[in-house]
TrEMBL record:
Pfam family, one: Lig_chan
UniProt source species: Musca domestica
Record key words, sorted: Calcium, Cell membrane, Disulfide bond, Glycoprotein, Ion channel, Ion transport, Ligand-gated ion channel, Magnesium, Membrane, Phosphoprotein, Postsynaptic cell membrane, Receptor, Signal, Synapse, Transmembrane, Transmembrane helix, Transport
Function: NMDA receptor subtype of glutamate-gated ion channels with high calcium permeability and voltage-dependent sensitivity to magnesium. Mediated by glycine. This protein plays a key role in synaptic plasticity, synaptogenesis, excitotoxicity, memory acquisition and learning. It mediates neuronal functions in glutamate neurotransmission. Is involved in the cell surface targeting of NMDA receptors. Plays a role in associative learning and in long-term memory consolidation.
PANTHER family found in the cross-reference section: IONOTROPIC GLUTAMATE RECEPTOR
Protein name as it appears in the record: Glutamate [NMDA] receptor subunit 1
Domain of life of the source: Eukaryota
Subunit description: Forms a heteromeric NMDA channel with Nmdar2.
Primary localisation category: membrane
CDD domains referenced in this protein's UniProt entry, alphabetically: PBP1_iGluR_NMDA_NR1 (cd06379), PBP2_iGluR_NMDA_Nr1 (cd13719)
Family according to the record: Belongs to the glutamate-gated ion channel (TC 1.A.10.1) family.
Compartments reported by the entry: Cell membrane; Postsynaptic cell membrane; Postsynaptic density
The UniProt record lists the keyword Iron: no
């Protein structure tokens, strides 16, 4: 019996051995079984044994097996402190065995170097790696650790619990202290990103007042603590290693920053510092030291992924060795994808992963540090299966705060001296620069220096106005002092979207960075904004607003349209068609008058004058003159119609002219005197504003609330794209351009535009108000002054103080003056009647030009007449001479005939006459026919016989001629022959 009893005592061990050997026997007997090798790189013997037990247990769990032949095998190695040896072990003992995945832990003394080496090696072959203890942020970088996921969350995920704790306690302003390593920057980025994305629905969201970054391995933290004491927040979020946290707590205690009124919320590592102050709140991950639970969860997660992948696709065998560098296991990529989609309930809670392979839904304990370094769990961060989300539960009654206080600290120090910013915006804020001779501002002004960020120069200015009086009243009522300054860039502020990445985190959504007044408040360089600051959702997301101190809306400012005072404005009473018909009618009537008076038998009659002269009938020129004279109401001296029919037409024409002139006069008064200009635009819905093709320039101020309003309105998107290019930096520039006519419509707050319209009657607001809102006081998010300022403004409204400010600064009584100006008729000026004067000047110029033309034409006619008279006289003389010659020749011819009839010597008379007249020719014998030389021959010969004559031609030409002439004395014939030359002296003019 004893051996049998010993045998039964050893049955559990035998069963255990059989369980270990069963897979090997099955594998040997059936080569077709599906086997999946799982590697393990674990830190100690206990972890190895746990891994083997979990694999064996998995083989008997039918939930994770699709068939009886499906078997899992565990291949384990010990983690080596030397990462290089770890790499060789992974290649020789795991990858060589064709493992489908590797479960890895880390040695507490070696850190995460060896797990990183396993991740690099396995990731090179796309073999998934499941970490059970590595929490550094570096493993979240999928560019390096391509196939790494873990069942523990990284350290920077504690930022999610921080935000839940701040929301629970109601703290809205914090100071973050973190190391400058990867994890420190990652937790800061996680805090800021999560605060902006996942907690938008929270009314009061925590904002970071100050970020203190330090280098690891601290010697002293005093310098940073001095800077932290100047901040308002007294809530400190600390991420640091245990060694650095010890230095920080030591120096903080020196500056009394661990006493009552201060709140410290720290991470796991900092909570482990030996000098952690009493009252500190920290976090502790659940199952952080339970490797057995994490190993089991990791193995079951892997089995779940293999089961689902096997049902959907074929799983190929993993790489066999590390020698083949070209191996790329595609099934490994797919398996890693299936692993990231797991969501199971394990021993460590709900196990799920994000896109980076990091554990989500991890639970934490909220620890309150008690005296003598005792830890008290006061809350937990746990998974709620009903809502499938994480929830925070804290028992406030169990918490002991720093200074051993049971009451929760305020978490903020309320300052009584505030830095207030404003901006020049008439009539709310008037800004005047101090001259060189001035030392201080006058009584009703407040100093408001402008600090220029570009050159670091501070300029002295003085401010007064609606908002300045409001600031004075607020400071007196709720008892604070202030230092007033102007906006550094002169703008209200708008946001700029910027992409940012922090550490190893993936790309976060674009971050809004504010400029101008809002940027100064968001970045906590100012405490309050007292200016006409419009309340809108975009700004309210980042700053606090008081209740509105003035309600207003958006309207359009434009210059009153002037009348169409062109050079031909006097022609406006009639249309162009009517003017053409009037001109045509004048000439038609003149033509008919001429015809009637021309052909009427009574058109001509005798006048009862002494000379019995008959007056000429009406000609066409006189008829046109008569028609124009009647139309223009001018006196008609002469050229009137004489016939009865023409006079009847003249009377009708006179009636027509009277009606035309009266109508013209009445309409001229309406156009030039009684017409009151209206606005060009009917409001924001005017089609000319909505139509981008219309030549109408409109604008607003860059980055203002009006600019944001147009961005939000989808139906105004086309209009906004058009006006965006025309937007101005300040409202003053835009209003000045509206006055000059460079800008046709300026869209801005109604309060300012109504003030400008009341001050300058040439400006007018168009349409009804739209986008109604209010002006509020801007404060930092979570400012302790918000409630006090709001209550005081409500009291000012009830007491009538705000109405008094409206009357004193906005209206000035000028609105009534503009109304009286509108009721008075317009006065005509040169601009209206310039065309008439130009018409008269043109008439004078035309008259002068015509008289000059007439004078020149008359002189030309006189000269032409004189030349004609001379020509007629010369022609008459010439005809007389010709007639005289004809008479003489006729007489001589008759004498010759008479002599021939008497048979006398025909040459006797001629010879006798020639001899008597030319006695010098008597020496030569001549026949009667040669008694008289021809006139031309005589004159030509005379020239060559004249000794004073110098011939132009050669002697060869004239020599033979001269040789035939005998030179006997003076043979020169007379220059003129009395018989052929008449006295023509009277022809010379």
């Amino acid at each position: 019996m004893a051996p049998h009893q010993d045998l039964w005592k050893n049955i559990p061990w035998a069963v255990y051995i059989l369980l270990l050997l069963a897979p090997l026997v099955i594998q040997a007997n059936d080569s077709s079984d599906e086997t999946y090798n799982v590697g393990g790189v674990l830190a100690d013997y206990i972890s190895n044994k746990t891994f083997v037990d979990v694999i064996s247990e998995l083989n008997f769990n039918s939930k994770y097996k699709t068939s009886r032949r499906m078997t899992y095998y565990g291949k384990t190695i010990r983690m080596d402190k030397n990462p290089i040896k770890t790499v060789f072990n992974v290649c020789d003992k795991l990858i060589d065995k064709r493992v489908y995945a590797v479960v890895v832990s880390h040695e507490s003394t070696s850190g995460d170097l060896s797990p990183a080496a396993v991740s690099y090696t396995s990731g090179f072959f796309q073999i998934p790696v499941i970490g059970i203890s590595s929490r550094d942020a570096a493993f979240s970088d999928k560019n390096i650790h391509v196939s790494f996921l873990r069942t523990v969350p990284p350290y920077y995920h504690q930022a999610d619990v921080w935000l839940e704790m701040l929301n629970h306690f109601g703290y809205t302003k914090v100071i973050i202290i973190h190391s400058s390593d990867t994890d420190g920057r990652a937790i800061l980025g996680r805090f800021q990103t999560t605060s902006q994305t996942y907690y938008d629905d929270i009314d009061v969201r925590a904002t970071v007042e100050m970020i203190v970054e330090f280098e690891p391995k601290l010697d002293s933290f005093a310098e940073h603590l001095i800077e932290m004491k100047t901040a308002q927040s007294r809530v400190y979020l600390l991420y640091a290693s245990t060694e650095d946290a010890q230095v920080i707590f030591r120096d903080a205690a020196t500056y009394n920053m661990t006493e009552a009124g201060h709140v410290w919320i720290v991470t796991e590592q900092a909570l482990s510092a030996p000098n952690t102050p009493d009252g500190v709140l920290g976090l502790q991950l659940e199952h952080v030291n339970s490797d057995h639970s994490h190993i089991k969860d990791s193995v079951y997660v892997l089995a779940s992924a293999i089961i689902e992948m096997r049902q959907n696709e074929t799983i190929t065998e993993p790489p066999k060795n590390c020698d083949d560098s070209g191996v790329n296991w595609e099934s490994g990529k797919r398996l890693f994808h299936y692993l990231k989609t797991r969501n199971i309930t394990g021993e460590t809670g709900q196990v799920a992963f994000d896109d980076n392979g990091d554990r989500i839904y991890a639970g934490y304990h909220v620890i309150n540090m008690r005296p003598k370094q005792k830890r008290q769990i006061v809350g937990e961060f746990y998974y709620d299966p009903a809502k499938a989300t994480m929830r925070l539960h804290i028992n406030d009654s169990l918490i002991i705060w720093p200074g051993r206080q049971r009451k929760k600290p305020e978490g903020i120090m309320i300052p009584t001296h505030l830095k207030v910013l404003t901006i020049e915006e008439k009539p709310f804020v008037y800004v005047r620069r101090l001259t060189d001779d001035e030392v201080a501002c006058v009584d009703d002004e407040v100093p408001c220096p402008l600090f220029n960020n570009t050159n670091g120069v501070e300029n002295d200015y003085c401010c007064r106005g609606y908002c300045i009086d409001l600031l004075k009243a607020l400071s007196q009522r709720i008892n604070f002092t202030y230092e007033l300054g102007l906006s550094p860039d002169g703008q209200f502020g708008h946001y700029i979207l910027k992409n940012s990445t922090t550490g190893t985190l993936p790309s976060s959504p674009p971050k809004k960075e504010w400029t101008g007044l809002i940027g100064e408040l968001v970045n906590e360089r100012a405490d309050m904004i007292v200016a006409p600051l419009t309340i809108n959702p975009e700004r309210a997301e980042y700053i606090e607003f008081s209740k509105p101190f003035k309600y207003q809306g958006i309207t359009i400012l434009e210059k009153k349209p002037s009348r169409s005072s062109t050079l031909v404005s006097f022609l406006q009473p009639f249309s162009n068609t009517l003017w053409i018909l009037v001109v045509v009618s004048v000439h038609v009537v003149a033509l008919v008058l001429y015809l009637l008076d021309r052909f009427s038998p009574f058109g001509r009659f005798k006048l009862s004058h002494v000379d019995s002269h008959e007056e000429k009938a009406l000609n066409l020129s006189s008829a046109i003159w008569f028609a124009w004279g009647v139309l223009l109401n001018s006196g008609i001296g002469e050229g009137t119609p004489r016939s009865f029919s023409a006079r009847v037409l003249g009377m009708v024409w006179a009636g027509f002219a009277m009606i035309i002139v009266a109508s013209y006069t009445a309409n001229l008064a309406a156009f030039l005197v009684l017409e009151r200009p209206k606005t060009k635009l009917s409001g924001i819905n005017d089609a000319r504003l909505r139509n981008t093709m219309e030549n109408l320039t409109c604008a607003t101020v860059k980055g203002s609330s009006v600019d944001m309003y147009f961005r939000r309105q989808v139906e105004l998107s086309n209009m906004y794209r058009t006006m965006e290019a025309n937007n101005y930096d300040t409202a003053e520039q835009a209003i000045e351009d509206v006055k000059k006519g460079k800008l046709m419509a300026f869209i801005w707050d109604s309060s300012r535009l109504e003030y400008e319209a009341s001050k300058d009657c040439e400006l007018v607001t168009a349409g009804e108000l739209f986008g109604r809102s209010g002006y509020g006081i801007g404060l930092q998010k979570g400012s302790p002054w918000t409630d006090a300022v709001t209550l005081t403004i409500l009291e000012f409204h009830e007491s009538g103080f705000m109405e008094a400010l409206d009357k004193a600064w906005i209206f000035h009584g000028n609105a009534q003056q503009c109304e009286q100006f509108e009721k008075t008729p317009n006065t005509l000026g040169l601009k209206n009647m310039a065309g008439v004067f130009i018409l008269v000047a043109a008439g004078v110029a035309i008259g002068v030009g015509l008289i000059i033309i007439e004078v020149i034409y008359k002189k030309h006619q006189v000269k032409k007449q004189k030349r004609m008279d001379i020509a007629r006289h010369a022609a008459a003389k010439w005809r007389g001479t010709i007639e005289k010659r004809k008479t003489i020749r006729t007489s001589l011819a008759m004498q010759r005939q008479y002599n021939v009839g008497l048979n006398s010597n025909p040459g006797t008379i001629s010879y006798t006459v020639d001899k008597r007249r030319y006695h010098r020719l008597g020496g030569g014998s001549r026949v009667p026919e040669k008694a008289w030389l021809g006139d031309n021959d005589m004159l030509r010969n005379r020239r060559y016989l004249d000794p004073t004559f110098k011939p132009k031609h050669s002697p060869k030409v004239h020599g033979p001629m001269l040789g035939k002439i005998k030179h006997s004395g003076n043979l020169m014939p007379p220059k003129y022959s009395p018989g052929y030359t008449s006295d023509v002296s009277h022809l010379v003019v």
